[in-house]
Amino acid sequence: MKDLIGYQERTNWMGEEILTLADIWPDQPRAMIVGLNPAPPSVEAGHYYQGRSGQGQLRRLAAARLLDMPSGRHFEDAVLAAGVGFTDIVKRPTTGEDGVSKAEIAHGSGLLADALSARGVELIVCVFRQPVKALLGDEGSPGIQAKRTPWGAQVFRMPGPYQDAASAAVAMQQLATVWSTMNRTDTI
């Protein structure tokens, strides 16, 4: 049996033993970065978002000051230092959303909503569109969603990796403003 590296974990997902990435929860999570499911290269490396698109999305989050930019490819320490964590709706790795079933999304959405609610997470950052649809019932458009979760958390849908720069900047500014307000409120 292979030794685990980074944030790899072996777990049971809907009756099947799999190798995946462990959820990364800060002690007091203020925000969680949520993906649909981990990509095989990320699981193999033991770190979240190791592909080109994922790395680009995390750099956008650093530019919006949600977290500090790390010196390498691994963002886990930077998100934890900011009171942010990583998780996915579906734990089984696939190369794309086509490999994820509706049953897996339904199963994982319920588990995720329970975990986020129990920890009082205030802001959910969805790296791609699918987690927004799973949590709110509609994929929305990039930016802060009008609808909140049942426990009152705001949901932010990141712009796609190939979205035009101007509209991506508008969406990311919304996140920067919400995050700045959350930080200001906590210090008063």
Q: Could you characterize the architecture of this molecule?
A:
This protein has 188 residues and is of the alpha/beta class. The protein has a single domain, classed as Uracil-DNA Glycosylase, subunit E. 38% of the residues lie in helices and 17% in strands. It is built from six helices and seven strands, in the order βββαααβαβαββα. The strands form two sheets. Strands 4-3-5-7-6 form a five-stranded mixed β-sheet, sandwiched between helices. The longest helix is centred in the last third of the chain and has 23 residues, at 165-187. It is globular, with a radius of gyration of 16 Å. The mean pLDDT is 93.
Topology (elements, then pairings):
Elements: E1 8-13, E2 16-21, E3 31-35, H1 40-45, H2 52-63, H3 76-81, E4 84-88, H4 102-118, E5 123-126, H5 129-136, E6 143-144, E7 154-157, H6 165-187
Parallel strand pairs: 3-4, 3-5, 5-7
Antiparallel strand pairs: 1-2, 6-7
Question: Which labels suit this protein?
Answer:
Uracil-DNA Glycosylase, subunit E, 38% helix, Uracil-DNA_glycosylase-like, DNA repair, MUG/TDG, 188 residues, 17% strand, 6 helices
- CATH class reads Alpha Beta
Number of beta-strand segments = 7
CATH superfamily: Uracil-DNA glycosylase-like domain
Residue stretches low in confidence (pLDDT < 50, at least 5 long) are none
- Outline the biggest β-sheet: 5 strands, mixed
Relative strand content: 15-25%
Count of alpha and pi helical runs: 6
How far apart are the first and last residues' alpha carbons, in Å?
A: 51 Å
**CATH fold description:** Uracil-DNA Glycosylase, subunit E
Overall mean confidence score, pLDDT: 93
Q: SSE order, as H and E?
A: EEEHHHEHEHEEH
Gross morphology is globular
How many individual domains? 1
Question: What's the CATH architecture name?
Answer: 3-Layer(aba) Sandwich
Helical content (DSSP H or I, runs of 4+): 25-40%
Q: Whole-number radius of gyration? A: 16 Å
Structural class: alpha/beta
Strand order of the largest sheet: 4-3-5-7-6
